[in-house]
Amino acid sequence: MDGKYVVTERFDEGAIVRITLNRPEARNAQNRGMLVELGAAFEEAEADDRVRVVILAGAGPLFTAGHDLGSKADVAERTPGPQQHPTFTSHGATRVGAENRMLQEWHFYFQNTLRWRNLRKITIAEVQGTVYAAGLMLMWCCDLIVAADNAKFADVVGTRLGMCGIEYFAHPWEFGPRKTKELMLTGDSIDVDEAHRLGMVSKVFPAAELPEKTLAYARRIASLPTMAALLIKESVNQTMDNMGFYNGLQACFTLHQLNHAHWAEVRGDGVGRARPEDGVPDWRTAGPVLPAVRDDVKAEADN
Ligand code: ZN
User: Which residues fall within 8 angstroms of residue 179, CB to CB, at 6 or more apart?
Assistant: First the structure.
């Protein structure tokens, strides 16, 4: 299934499927059309008994820039008219206030991500470039993460939008609790070597070789009996759920909604995020994300 924003390719008689976010001109920013197409592509791969491994990739220099916060396509699909996406007249979109935002975000940022995390196939995220904020969600819902040597990871929504994180708050499980506080309170980034050391990223490849090496890695995983592969995934996921992952995600989604509601009330504009007058830089013109360093208070730009 090829859509407007997502391309699906099959390898090895369908044993491996690569789903590629294909909106490089917008740095694969996640607009509604893309997220709905991505959900359909994941579910199509899940339903297909030939498929053993699903790779999630992004076309161009960046895996995904995160949620689309106002491109032309984003505005058009929200606005009544011929280009409006049908999900902006359903899924809570006709409700008002915090209920509208909570339901829309639950369907298209929270529950869909959790659904992909529980896909009945092994999934591998193939990431390159800067992976910030909602880029993390798409990567984290996959079982394994393979990265280009230029990848960097950060969540800047605390320092730039006055938000306590993204809708799918897997941060403490991926970065560790204290590292999450550090990264979110400073907005600093970690590089791919640290991500590998943390166990978040399993393989690091030169950017030019990323697709080919990821495919070779996927072939190795695809050789496992499907029953063993799925039960390995489930054993880990169910352990995490019993440790509180699922409840933690739900609690933090609620805090996230409170945070949106706060800014909507303070600003009175319904947007639900901090503005420069609230003490954050304009996210569109904010300076570079800085690497978290060990021995100085303030990081220095390396780009
Ligand atoms: Zn949100």
Answer: 190, 198
302: pLDDT confidence band, cut at 50, 70 and 90? low
Query: Tokens at residue 62, please?
Result: 């960046």
- What's the gap in Å between 273 CA and the centre of ligand 1? 9
Residue-range domain boundaries for the chain: 6-278
Q: How much distance in Å is there from the Cα of 193 to the middle of ligand 1?
A: 29
Helices 245-267 and 97-105 pack at an angle, to 10 degrees, of 140
Q: Cα of 217 to ligand 1 centre, how many Å?
A: 34
Sign of the alpha-carbon dihedral angle for 55, 117, 196, 65: positive
Element (H, E) at 18: strand 16-21
- Please tell me the distance between residue 105's alpha carbon and the centre of ligand 1 in angstroms: 6
> What global pTM score does this model have?
0.96
Distance CA 32, CA 109 (A): 10
Nearest one of 9, 18, 129 to 66, comparing CA atoms: 129
For residue range 240-254, list pLDDT tens digits in order.
Answer: 999 999 999 999 999
Residue type, position 110, single letter:
F
Interatomic CA distance for residues 186 and 174, integer angstroms? 17
CATH 3.30.360.10 fits 6-278, yes or no: no
From the CA of 107, how far away is ligand 1's center (Å)? 11
Query: Distance, CA 63 to ligand 1 centroid (Å)?
Result: 20
Q: Is residue 217 a contact partner of residue 124, using CB atoms and an 8 Å limit? A: yes
